[in-house]
Amino acid sequence: MQADRARIADIAARILDMERALLALRHEGALIQERLDSFKYPILTLPNEITSEIFTHFLPGTRDIALSTPVLWRAIGVSTAGMTTQLLESWLTRAGQCLLSIKMGDDYRLGDCLSQFLPAIVARRACWEHLEIIIKPAGLAFLEIGMPSLRCLQLELIAIQAASAPYIFEFCEAPLLRTATLNYIAAAAIVLPWAQLTSLVLKHMLPQEYAPILKQTVNLVHCELICYSEPGVTDDETINLVFLESLLLITPDGDGAGAASEYLNRFILPSLRTLQAPEEFLGAYPIGILTSFISRSACQLQNVCITGLRSTSKAVYRTTFSSIPNFIFNEDPTISYHNEDAGGGE
User: Fold this and answer.
1) How far apart are CA 261 and CA 244, in angstroms?
2) Residues 6+ apart with CB under 8 A from 228
3) Of 11, 99, 189, 333, which shows the fewest CB atoms inside 10 Å?
4) pLDDT digits over 133-153, tens only?
5) pTM of the predicted model, to two decimals?
6) By the 8 A CB rule, do 238 and 214 touch?
7) How far apart are CA 37 and CA 146, in angstroms?
8) Which DSSP category does 84 fall into?
C-alpha cells in the first residue's frame, strides 16, 4: 500500500507537469496565431479609390484582370437585396480556392429567404474563414458540418416568438476557430470549442448567463461583454482567466441600475492590461471595488476607461491609481475603448 501511495502521488505530479506544459504550449500557439492573423498584405490596405484608379489606368483589359483575380472576390455579402443564385455561383467561382469572408442576412426579415443560397455556400464550407450570419434558430442545421478553416464566427439568432427550450448545436469540427461574437440567443443555443477561443464578444446578457461560458474559455486574451445589470443577483463562483489581457464591460443602452458590483468581484485576471467598465458596475464604492479587484488579480493595469455617469471625481481615481499610466473617462457607457481615441475621453 505504501508503494501504491507513492506511485499514485508520482503519477499525479507527472499529470500536473504535463497539464502545465500543455497550457503553456496552447498560450504560445495562440499568441503566434494572433500575430499571423494581424498580418496584412500591403496592397489590401490601399484606399478603394486608389485601387480603382490602378485598375482603370494601369493596364488595358483591367476588367478581365479583376474578374480573374480570386482574392478580389473572397468577401461575399449574401442577402435577398439584389442577390440571385446565379450571381452567387459566379462570385464563388471567381473566388477560386481563396478563403472566404461571408456575411449572410442584413435585417430581421431574411430568416426564411436565405435558404435558396445555402447549397452554394455550404458547398464551399472548407473555405470559410470568417462567417457573419443573422438567422432564425431553426436555420442552424446547415452549420452541422465540418468547418476546417473557420477562424471567426459572428452569429446572431433571431427570436421570432416566445422562446422554448433552445436546440443545442455543437461545433465539433472547427479546429482553427479563435474569435466569436454571439448574441444572447446564440449563446444559449450553441456550444463552441470554448477552450480554443482567444477573443469573445457576448451581447445583451446577464451576469448569471455569461458566467458559465467564461469559465470554459480558459485561453481568452480579449473579452467584451455587452451586458445588463440586475440588482440582487449574485454569483459567488470565481471566473479565473489567466491569459486575459483586455476586458470591456459595456451597457447596451446606458441605463443601468447602479448596483452591480459583482461584475468585477467575480473575476481574477492576473494578465489584465486593459479594463473598461461603467462606474455603475463598480457599485456604491467604486474605488474600493476597483482596488480590491486589482489586489485580488495581482494584475498590472496599463489602460483603464471608466464610462457613464460618475459619483467619484476623475482626480480621486487618478490619485488613487497613480500607477496606471493611461486612465481615461467617457460619459458614454455604450462605446468600446478600442474605438476611442485615448486622448479624447477627458
Assistant:
1) 20
2) 204, 205, 206, 251, 252, 256
3) 11
4) 888 777 777 777 789 999 999
5) 0.76
6) no
7) 21
8) -
